[in-house]
Specification:
The protein is of the alpha/beta class. It has 8 helices and 6 strands, in the order E-E-E-H-E-H-E-H-H-H-H-H-E-H. A 6-stranded mixed sheet has the order 3-2-1-4-5-6, with helices on both faces. Strand 4, helix 2 and strand 5 form a beta-alpha-beta unit. The longest helix has 24 residues.
């Protein structure tokens, strides 16, 4: 699992056009890094420095496209250069049988697979906590989420679900500037 990085971000809302990032956490097998600050540009610059040093690794998350879209659009808004990187979504892996359309939450899947998770807070709690200046609570929540995703991904890999997913869909998502431009057009049209 040394080539896997769990990734999550916390935001003040659901739309990158009128919300901001408050925290980004990443976790490797041995280390975790938390980028949190009142200055969103600093968070993003620190995150991209980390990505540049780990570009060959696979970034995994839960509903990770939300996080990736947010990071890319907010980076552009802050005038920060972006790079392409590999991502894989744990929620997609768990939903190979698309006809069931049951997505479940991170808390649900953590409980289902007996992965420890402190589910006291959810993403919608973050804007109020940020408004109150409670960055430490946001950081703890984000760090718990990346640890949970990392452990969940390891379980799915050991059970063979990651390989089944890859064979069925034959893909990693290689997130690059073309995807980013498409995204930007979507958000500007809203």
């Amino acid at each position: 699992m040394q080539n896997i990085i769990s990734f999550d971000c916390e935001t003040t809302g659901l739309s990158p056009s009128d919300s901001r990032i408050t925290c980004i956490c990443v976790k490797t097998e041995k280390e975790k890094y938390t980028f949190a600050d009142q200055d969103e540009a600093k968070i993003l610059m620190d995150f991209w420095k980390f990505v540049n040093k780990n570009i060959e690794k696979l970034f995994v998350g839960f509903n990770v496209m939300f996080d990736v879209d947010f990071v890319l659009i907010r980076s552009l808004k802050n005038g920060i250069c972006v790079r392409k990187f590999f991502i894989e979504d744990v929620r997609d892996i768990l939903n190979i049988k698309r006809e069931y359309r049951f997505k479940g939450t991170l808390e649900y899947w953590a409980d289902f697979f007996d992965v420890d998770h402190n589910g006291n807070l959810i993403g919608s709690d973050m804007p109020k906590l940020f408004e109150q200046g409670k960055i430490d609570i946001i950081k703890e929540h984000c760090e718990d989420d990346v640890r949970t995703v990392f452990e969940l991904y390891k379980k799915l890999k050991n059970l063979g679900l990651v390989d089944v997913y890859r064979k069925k869909y034959d893909k990693y998502v290689w997130y690059d500037i073309e995807n980013f431009i498409y995204l930007l057009k979507q958000y500007k049209s809203k």
